Amino acid sequence: MAVMRLGYAHVRVTDMAEAKDHYANTLGLYETLSEGNKAYYKAWDEWDHHSVVLEEGGVGLVKYGWKVQYSSDIDEIEKKAQAFGVTVERMSKGDNPEIGDGIRFTTPSDHVFEVYHAATLVGTEVGTHNPDAFPRHLVGVGVPALDHSLITAEDPGLMDRFLGDVFGFYATERVQTSLDDDADIIATWMTNSTQIHQLAVLAGPQGKLHHFAFRLGDWTEVGRAADLFSMDDVPIDVGPTRHGITRGQTVYFFDPSGNRNEVFAGGYLAYPDRPMHVWTPDALGKGVFYHARELNDAFTSVLT
Amino acid sequence: MPTVTIHPTGEVIHLEPGETVLSGLYKAGYAYTVGCRRGGCAICKVDCRSGEFSYNHPVADTVITESELDDGTCLSCRAVPETDVSIELRGESVRLVNRFLHTINDKARQRAEALAAAAVTSGTTHKEQ
Question: Which of A129, A137, A214, B26 is most deeply packed, by most CB within 10 A?
């Protein structure tokens, strides 16, 4: 395994005070650093220094950080990205606070990826010695961890190949124009572990963010999160509902700058040898929103 | 207190001070295509045909481009009218989804108009009240 997980999502926000209130008090993330126009957060069950970076000024994605298991993985990924035709630059320890050396490149979808191996270990909120099941005084939803993200790209098929060749990801589910061998890929859900998806790519404009998601345990927690969003006047996009694709339980909602967030629970275990689920456009509504079975126009058009 | 007139149907919506165009329309029982409702996705843009408004939050230049700052483009979730405004939706019409709210808003508008008329009659302007 090279890439272990989506280590951090770095996004722009128009108003830092409102954003901090959302991520700290509604979602329950812990602020680990605030300097200049940036604030750094981690969730309670994460051990590295941060998983969310907020930067004041604008909206949308700045970049993602992907954490690899071994430092040699960085060199491997650099070679594979170059072989794919992507220009790779080196980043130094301290380019991102509490993150080590690594590489940075722009994907064929015009998103900036950083790959790193070292991050300052802060520890989870329950520690490692005889740990309790969860922290007693969680705030708001109290999300345990960052989970995955969905981006848009003009050619999701190209990103499917890129993530396969460079990160060793495989597709667990795809939306295709048909079941034919030469069908076009409309969307792809990719991972390299048993996590059902780490990054999904949907046909759309280059360089855009659809959402980034936090993990929850089950339906009850997803429902409770939606209740809290109503209490805090957080705009809910869709849900609570289930995705046909991934089988995850979900609420889509917006942060105070309009970046879409998700809380996501469940999803089945992924394996590279499990036959891929294929969805065709006639069932896309059910694939995305399993109960309403109808896409709303915001799902594919509302991006930051 | 400003009003929003919806072109071309001519419906007039009464807004509370500081209220955004989107919030005012929804509180008057109307719905139209909106996305994040927080200034990020640009889906709720309408055209402002007359009147003045300002944005109550910083708006990203990826959402409102420089040329859209003075071409009448109005990001309705962040736009607070400073005068009576007239707007036109882009490729759709508002849908009345809550007629009870619409009735309440209509009465609020009539009260505000009556107060303004009384103020003119008694020699004080609306702003001096």
Answer: A214
pTM of the full structure: 0.92
Residue B81 CA to residue A235 CA, distance in Å, equals: 22
Strands A185-191 and A236-242: unpaired
In A59-199, which ranges are continuous DSSP H helix?
71-84, 156-167
Chain B partners within 8 Å of A301 (Cβ): 35, 41, 43
- Residues of A involved in catalysis: 148, 197, 211, 243, 252, 262
Q: Could you tell me if A259 lies within 8 Å of chain B, comparing CB atoms?
A: yes
- Please state the CATH superfamily assignment of the domain spanning residues A3-116 in this structure: 2,3-Dihydroxybiphenyl 1,2-Dioxygenase, domain 1 (3.10.180.10)
Domain boundaries, chain A: 3-116, 145-301
Q: Which domain holds residue B70?
A: 3-128
Interface test with A, best of B22, B26, B38 (most A CBs within 10 A): B38
**Chain segment B53-99, per-residue pLDDT in tens:** 999 999 999 999 999 998 999 999 999 999 999 999 999 999 999 98
Q: ipTM value of the model?
A: 0.81
Which CATH entry fits the domain spanning A145-301: 3.90.170.10, 3.40.50.150, 3.10.180.10, 2.60.40.780? 3.10.180.10
Chain B contact for A298, CB < 8 A? yes
**Count of CB contacts below 8 A, A vs B?**
67
CA-to-CA distance for A224 and A281, rounded, in angstroms? 32
Structure tokens that stand for A235 in this block: 């705009």
